[in-house]
Amino acid sequence: MAEKPSTWSQLLVGYGEDAHRLGEGRELWLGGVRIESDRGAIAHSDGDVLLHALSDALLSAFALGDIGSYFPDHDPKWKGLESRVILEVVLQKVRESGYRLSQLSAVVTLDRPKLGPHRTSIQQHLALLTGLPEKRVGLTFKTSEGLAPDHAQCRVVVYLEPLPEKQGEKS
Questions:
Q1: Residue positions forming the annotated binding site for a divalent metal cation
Q2: What number does CATH give the domain 11-170?
Q3: DSSP letter string, 24-70
Q4: I need a labelling partner for 56 at 20 to 30 A (CA). Which of 16, 49, 70, 169 fits?
Q5: How many CB atoms lie within 10 A of CB 88?
Q6: Where along the chain do its domains lie?
Q7: Model confidence pTM above 0.85
Q8: pLDDT tens across 134-160, in order?
């Protein structure tokens, strides 16, 4: 008799990363939260490296390309786009594929400002945007140790599981 696939065999993993140069007088957005800073991302959209890396990680789990495939930076209609909109579109693609986000782990590299004081607000906002419990939103903040003081970077790993109604169909 064939064994039913285990939940573990149905889990998907995705990885994404993003980086932007920083410029004076621009807004700094991380995880959908505006961070007080004299510098922000130089980008076609709002430049939220955390939401961009998260969106790319979700797309990579399904081999669906990257956010540039859906929101190309050469298209003027996406100029100034809020990254939460990108994430909403990508999360819909995840649901249409029969999955949901189960956990995310992100590492943000930024020399200044210090992000520790913003951890709770970023974690809460990511939980709200993704529908995850806060304890499933892992955030690590690093500096570049002076190697790249004029840029922000983020790496994200995501775990996805079948939607409960889809899990029964796979058995």
A1: 18, 20, 52
A2: 3.30.1330.50
A3: ET--EEETTEEEP-SEEE-SSS---HHHHHHHHHHHHHTT---HHHH
A4: 169
A5: 12
A6: 11-170
A7: yes
A8: 999 999 999 999 999 999 999 999 999
